[in-house]
Specification:
This protein is of the alpha+beta class. 38% of the residues lie in helices and 17% in strands. This is IS4 family transposase.
């Protein structure tokens, strides 16, 4: 699989998937947790991973 930016692959590695989630943070405020920094490409990836992942990151 290619790690080159903007190059497509049909067999992404687990490392590639994990790297795509960089920049997502958790904000704790008054006892509540909020997920911040989710970008559009990450939302698309979450949709591909399924409802469980979408629920965790929403």
């Amino acid at each position: 699989p290619s790690m080159v930016k903007n190059k497509t692959t049909t067999k992404p590695t687990a490392r590639w998937v994990f790297l795509k989630f960089e920049g997502i943070d958790t904000l704790e405020l008054d006892g509540q947790s909020f997920i911040t920094g989710v970008r559009e490409h990450q939302r698309r990836l979450l949709k591909l991973l399924g409802q469980l992942y979408e629920a965790v990151y929403s």
